[in-house]
Amino acid sequence: MPLSHHEAGEITGYHAHIYYDAESREAARAVRLGVEGRFRCVLGRWHDQPVGPHPKAMYQVAFEVDEFAKIVPWLMLNRRGLDILIHPNTEDTIKDHDANPIWLGTKLALDIDTLRRFSVEQAKKIAAG
């Protein structure tokens, strides 16, 4: 079977998911304040309960490809002990979260089945027009 490769050009952007709990919410707020205004990104709302495939409370930071080399090293140095999932955005959201992410801190178990169900539902809506 021939090897196939994906090209970095398939990545349209990135998401960083900053995880926290009640004890680390202030640290998450400090990280958010550090990101805000320092980088070209879109800060998502706080989710104080697990949402989608994410097993803990979190907020999302969305950023473009050209911000990766700026924001990821900053997060590495300033994550305040928080666990952070960083994944590419391609046409395959399941692989983006499951096979192709990077983790800062502890790798958490994502609920990939939730993503699969969501992808199937989205495909049905698109097919229905």
Provide the gyration radius in Å: 16 Å
Mean model confidence by pLDDT: 91
Element-by-element helix/strand order: EHEEHEHEH
Which structural class best describes the helix and strand composition? alpha+beta
Number of helices: 4
Secondary structure: helix percent? 25-40%
Give the C-level CATH assignment: Alpha Beta
How is this structure best described in words?
The chain contains four helices and five strands, in the order βαββαβαβα. With 129 residues, it is of the alpha+beta class. It has one domain (10-128): Alpha-Beta Plaits (2-Layer Sandwich). The chain has a five-stranded antiparallel beta sheet. The chain is globular, with a radius of gyration of 16 Å. The relative contact order is 0.20. The mean pLDDT is 91.
Write the layout of secondary structure elements.
Blueprint (H helix, E strand, L loop, with lengths): L12 E8 L4 H11 L5 E3 L13 E7 L4 H11 L5 E6 L3 H6 L3 E3 L7 H17 L1
Antiparallel strand pairs: 1-3, 1-4, 2-3, 4-5
Q: What descriptors fit this protein?
A:
129 residues; alpha+beta; Alpha-Beta Plaits; five-stranded antiparallel sheet; 4 helices; 5 strands; 35% helix; globular
